[in-house]
Each structure stands twice: as C-alpha cells, then as structure tokens.
Amino acid sequence: MPNPSNPYSEMLPQLPPDEYQRLRDDIADNGVQVPIIVDDAGNILDGRHRWLIAQELGVDCPVGKPVVGLADHDKRLLAVAVNVKRRHLTSMQQTMLGRIIEPDIAERARRRQGFRTDLDPTSRPSVLEVVQRRDEVAAEVGLGSGRTYERNKGLLDKVEASHPDLLPEIVAGAIDTREVRSQVAKRENEAKLAAVVEREVEAPTGLYDVIVIDPPWDMKKIERDVAPDQVNFDYPTMSEADLAQLTIPADDDCHVWLWTTQKYLPMALRLLEAWGLKYVCTFVWHKPGGFQPMGLPQYNCEFALYARKGSPKFVSTKALPTCFTAPRGAHSEKPEDFYQMLRRCTGGRRLDMFNRRAIDGFDGWGNEAAG
Questions:
Q1: Burial 245-264 (b: 16+ CB within 10 A, else e)
Q2: How far apart are alpha carbons 192 and 253 in whole angstroms?
Q3: Alpha-carbon gap, residue 308 to 299, rounded angstroms
Q4: Which phi and psi angles does 365 have, rounded to 5°?
Q5: What is the DSSP string of 1-45?
C-alpha cells in the first residue's frame, strides 16, 4: 500500500484549493492517468495528491514500478525534480524547497567526488564550491539563478525570525517575493516610526532624531543696518574650521537641516560632508524684502540644506514643500512656519543648535535662547 505521509512527499507545498479542486474534478471524470512514483518501501515520491483524491473518490490509482537503490537524499531530489517540472510554484515556494534540499545537494557533490579520504569533513567549502552548490540548488527548484535563491533565502530567514505570520501565505503560494518584501519593509518602517515617535516623550540621552543648525557664520553686519557704534554681531561667530570640528549629536537615523545664505552656501555643503552627513535637497525660505548687493539681484531667500544620517523616516510628507513663504522675524531668527512643519512631519527628539529663541518641541543649544 503506497504511503502518502513520508518525508519525501510531505515536504512539498500543498496544492492551492483551486488547483486541488481542478485535479479532483479531472480524476472524477477521467481517472488517474499518470501512475504515481514510489520507492521500494512504498513511500510516495510523486503523486501524493492523485493518490489521496483517488482514495476519496474510490477509483483506481496506478502505481509505477518502484524506484530502488536510491539514498534518502536522492529520493528527496527526485521528489522535488518531478514536482517542480509539473507544478506552478511561486519563487518563494521554490526557495523553501531549495533550503530543504541544500544538504542533499551537498551530499550529492560529496558522492561525486567518490568519498575521497583526503577530504576533511569539517573543512569549510571553498567560495567556488559554495557558488556552484547555490547554483545547483537554484536549478533543481526551477529558480533563475543562484543569486535569486540567496536573496530569497535571506528574505525567508527574516520572515521566520520577525514575521512568522506571513509563512502560511508563503507556503500556500498566496504571496510571492515582491509582496513579501513589500509587507516586510512596510512593517519595519511602521515599527521604526512608532519607536521614533514614542521616544519623543523620553528623557534626552544626548542624541537626537531631528536637528536644526543655524551656525554663527563668520561675518560682519552691514553697518547701515545697525547703530553707529555696533558693527559686530551680538553673538560670537565661528570660522569654517571651528564649525567643522563640531560634534553633531545625531542618532543613527537623523534628519538634519542646516541654515545658510547665498554667500555661505558652498561652505555649508562642505560642512555637511565634514560632519559625515548625506545631502539630500534644499529647502528655500522665500521672505519679504532682503539685502540687494550693488549690481546684483535682491537676496530675498535663505536656504535650509536637508541632509541625513542613516535612513530616517518622515512621520508624514503631506504639505512638506521645499519652498515656502514666511514673514521675517528678528535678526537671524528663523520662521515659526518652518518649525511647525518639522513638528508635524517628524518625530522623536529634536534639537535646535545655535537657537536664537526657545522653540516649542525642540531642545536648545546656544547662548541666546530664552530661558
């Protein structure tokens, strides 16, 4: 009596309900046309669904000549080979099969070498052997390449470790690689955002998720804009060398905005690089009025260079324009509209470096902020 419950046939994915029903209807109308394959112990290597349906319907199920003389690893490889050719498996189902038969591929390779006695069984395979074995596994299960198999296998490892509830859908073929990656990425992003937003209520640890920097650029006030006896700024300025030595208290994933003007734009870009931050884009503050140098256009905007450390996420990207209009405030004071936008679109701990005033939702770092 054939045995449908064995390690060789049960490792194969179940037929989806619609495919199972179509096979059942065909067998009800035409009987079992293709004999099942068994080993010398009666274990079904191919045809488990046909056998089970035939028993349900009470119809005859032909059994082919038993396959004899095969080692266990060869039986598993045979079961996979005949089913891969006949079944429409998803890429993830193929990868799951590949993980099962990977030791069998290694055993087959060992036997091809004739059980060489000079081989140390504890030695690690060479890089070439690993690549060859990976490619063999991919070929056995019908995947396009060994690289595809490795990528999918890594994704399966992540699912099993962190998202096991997705496994039943993968096994059933309900979702494939792209959807699995999408769901995993979505969950990771949601978890990351939730953790960042939650940290907003925690006590500061010295690192921040959002940093605004308005450096005290090394420049002089324009004398016509100040009192006769007031030429220098009301706060200390810093040279580029001094600014480059600053330690920016950014967490592993951090949004950073660096304020600058037309004149100091090249320096600002150099500073981002010196601080180990990756420039992304430029926010432009369009403000009424502005200084107009002799023979040049009016400078009626300032820039907030947006850079990143790591891969921070926005809580929302709605109404997050890179160009905005806002009224001017006191000298060097940045608009409240900007900070309001950041409070709405970012989460976590926020810092305003060299702040000119106290900003709601931001810690201050500077000698001018109100207490």
A1: eeebbbbeebbbbbbbbeeb
A2: 10
A3: 27
A4: -145, 100
A5: --B--STTTTTSPPPPHHHHHHHHHHHHHH---S-BEEBTT-BEE
State the amino acid at position 56 in one-letter form.
Answer: E
- pLDDT tens for 312-330 read 999 999 999 999 999 887 6
Once rounded to an integer, what is the mean pLDDT over residues 152-172? 88
Give the separation between CA 2 and CA 44, rounded to whole angstroms.
6
Top mean-pLDDT range of 83-97, 104-118, 196-210, 341-355: 341-355
Q: By three-state DSSP, how is residue 256 classified? A: strand
What would the DSSP string read from start to end of 123-178? SPPPHHHHHHHHHHHHHHHT-S-HHHHHHHHHHHHHHHHH-GGGHHHHHTTSS-HH
* Residues 14 and 55 sit within 8 Å (Cβ to Cβ): no
Q: What is the C-alpha to C-alpha distance for residues 63 and 3, in angstroms, rounded to an integer?
A: 12
Burial of 39 by CB count in 10 Å (0-12 exposed, 13-18 middle, 19+ buried)?
Answer: buried
CB 37, CB 45: distance < 8 Å: yes
Q: At 157, give phi and psi (nearest 5°).
A: -60, -40
- Between CA 207 and CA 33 the distance in angstroms is 69
Long-range contacts of 72-75 (CB under 8 A, 24+ apart): 72/7, 72/104, 73/101, 73/103, 73/104, 73/107, 73/108, 74/104, 74/108, 75/8, 75/39, 75/43, 75/45
Higher pLDDT, 354 or 214: 214
Q: Nearest Cα to 75, choosing from 41, 109, 34, 35?
A: 41
Average pLDDT of the segment spanning 210-231:
60
Write down all domains in the chain, each with its CATH number in brackets.
17-190 (no CATH), 208-365 (3.40.50.150)
d(CA 222, CA 230): 10
Report the alpha-carbon distance of residue 213 to residue 307 in Å, rounded: 11
Q: Report yes or no on whether pTM surpasses 0.85.
A: no
Q: How many alpha carbons lie under 13 Å from residue 264 in its C-beta half-sphere?
A: 23
pLDDT tens profile 35-47: 888 888 888 887 8
Q: How far apart are CA 98 and CA 240, in angstroms?
A: 57
Task: Pull the structure tokens for residue 180.
Answer: 């699995």
Query: What's the pLDDT band for 7 if we cut at 50, 70, 90?
Result: low
